[in-house]
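hey so u asked for the seq, here:
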Amino acid sequence: MIKTKEQIEGIRQAGRINTKVLDYVETHICAGMSTEEIDQMVAKKTKELGGICAPLNYEGFPKSVCTSINDAVCHGIPNPYTILKNGDIINVDCTTIYHGYYADASRTFMIGQVDPIAKRLVEVSKECLDLAVKELKPFSRLRDIGYVIEQHAKKNGFSVVHEIGGHGVGIEFHEDPFIYHYGKKNTGMVLFPGMVFTIEPMINEGSREVYLDASNNWTIYTDDGGRSSQFEYTIAILEDGISILAH
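ran it, structure tokens below
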């Protein structure tokens, strides 16, 4: 789980590409676009920048990016028939491989005019992530991350998905440790310099309960049909603080 300075620099380079791809999506995503078009956009831009889309064919995943709309919590599969509409929220989750190193990040975009609850849900999901990052420092405890996230979500009337969490990343797509987005303060493993992982809280409008779509065995949905929002960073713990490698 402990990366060398050279490995962290390699992950940072992958993260720069990943961030540029998400920036590109942010400037182009709009109502009327299909999720297949988003997939093509991500694939083309990643290739132009010298990267490889990690999701493509990962454990059978058929596309280059995950696109999760409204009540889809994560792992939405792009297709030509799902068209973005005014008022939708969509999470676009990109992972880039560059020279063998992986970086992973996602953003939730608001399409056109969204209702006040959706807007607040997206804002709070970003706030949850940023508050957790502020708590990070060398030799802090892993479950402090989840404690901060869950407290902020609950304070705003939302819930946190428990079944899916962040993960170590860099040499492989998914590594240890598992990053909980809920938990008790001052518990969990100690975070040592050299650790690189994602924080990616999934914040639900209603219940935290979710289910797996049996038709594709990938997409996770909210049990009650409420909307879900997520932001994700790849973060390195350093000797003197932390560094966001992809956002």
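Residues 58 and 173 are 9 Å apart (CA to CA). The mean pLDDT is 97.
lmk if thats what u needed
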